[in-house]
Description:
CATH architecture of the domain at 2-70 and 161-219: 2-Layer Sandwich
CATH topology of the domain at 2-70 and 161-219: Gyrase A, domain 2
Order of helices and strands: EHHHEHEHHEHHEHHHEHEHHEHHHH
Helix content: 40-55%
Number of strands: 8
Mean pLDDT: 93
Number of helices: 18
CATH class of the domain at 2-70 and 161-219: Alpha Beta
Oligomer: single chain
Amino acid sequence: xxxxxxxxxxxxxxxxxxxxxxxxxxxxxxxxxxxxxxxxxxxxxxxxxxxxxxxxxxxxxxxxxxxxxxxxxxxxxxxxxxxxxxxxxxxxxxxxxxxxxxxxxxxxxxxxxxxxxxxxxxxxxxxxxxxxxxxxxxxxxxxxxxxxxxxxxxxxxxxxxxxxxxxxxxxxxxxxxxxxxxxxxxxxxxxxxxxxxxxxxxxxxxxxxxxxxxxxxxxxxxxxxxxxxxxxxxxxxxxxxxxxxxxxxxxxxxxxxxxxxxxxxxxxxxxxxxxxxxxxxxxxxxxxxxxxxxxxxxxxxxxxxxxxxxxxxxxxxxxxxxxxxxxxxxxxxxxxxxxxxxxxxxxxxxxxxxxxxxxxxxxxxxxxxxxxxxxxxxxxxxxxxxxxxxxxxxxxxxxxxxxxxxxxxxxxxxxxxxxxxxxxxxxxxxxxxxxxxxxxxxxxxxxxxxxxxxxxxxxxxxxxx
Length: 465
């Protein structure tokens, strides 16, 4: 693992800006006068530390950093993208051959955190198994299976690379969790925490004293209630709950917004408008769909249960503005639950199933040898299924559907997005007109030369008109 700070090394300029933010609310003069008064570094850093020590941490949000994370695993990737105020660019696994990227090798420990006596022997066996899985991935690619489908046999130990951007407040939260939270029991995550701490000590002098275990818990409170039932993937995407009368709620919210009136009055106004124009709701929904803000769509919510493969989960997680419940990596999930791409079914389903079973058997051997769960997470395969629950407002669902219903989206997330749109459309037919790929809803394609060409159908219709 290599972690490097790309943006944020200019300490004095950054501290000056943060100090000015701290002084602004209670100092005479405009913002530029305040900035000019922050001309002594020692005073600035002292002020920043004092303000943050009082609990006023919002000024930390003006301090921004960009990191390069080299040769980390998807365990790191999936962990950090769950921090919703952080930005990421991640190497694609859909069009890159991962045969030679390398993989992470843990030091195998027992449940007390002590290195097992036979660690060297386990490492040899682990490497042999990882080499086998990468070899099977290569065989699938050579057999004509696309990389995005072949990767379903890749273990979660493979190396990937990430550009990560976040402000100091989110950096504090992430680093504390990696060092002192339950994630810290996974050595790779703690190593990332230590490397971030070293950068904090060098470039963020006001933050180090706040990176401590205060308020952190490395246990799972639910362990005492755990029933330990056998986990099975959900039977497809389910709409668990939604706002009642979705179409009416959106339209009436728009009337309330524009007329500055009550909900009751908005309902009466809409009722009167319908008498004069039976299609008024369709027309108003079209206007809301095509306006820039679409704030009215945020007034309705949907809760979904979604079965999804581990490697495709990031396609959903990276949409920040929804509340996603993802199980922790430990306790271990059932590796017998996995996704099978249609291309693999056509090429060699039986062998694919044998690879999945062999991986499960080897994982169980390591478990029986006393290896703790935190070191076994690298036996997860990219195709391993996980059940997630999420809640999102109508604007977020509209955005997700734009990206993920596109024919160029990865097939599994596209199937999930289309199913979400179908379920919502059954209860909100007018709102459904806002959902779908950009070409279907707005009749244009942002992909340019890389467009699939579907949008031409709509352009042709417009030309004919």
